[in-house]
Sequence to fold (126 residues):
Amino acid sequence: MSNPDGLLVDIAAMVESEHSNQMPLTVVVPGAVITGRLAPQSLWNERVAEVLMASDHLKPFAVLFTAPGADGEGVAAPAVRPTHLHLHVARILQGSYGLPHTGGMYRIAIADVSSWSVGDLSYSDQ
Fold:
């Protein structure tokens, strides 16, 4: 989507400003439907760093998520509008499965979202 949806940007900004990680969201991006919970970037970075620190091979990469300006765009002022969604407990929906089963961490460019819905999609075996 070349012109990001203003409402989606506003939702992401509210999550960032209130530091909430409970907003369920499902997005459609090229090649995938992803469902999970929006998180502030700082919390998302912290969780990714924890996962990396737990791995002997990946531990050196954790600093990229803990250093100032870890958003990849330098230290951002609070008034800057979000350009990315940060989902945790997120799954790529594939048929009747969500991958990974336990949920993962996804960073999605808002400009790539073609459609979205509030809510976390899930499947039932019943």
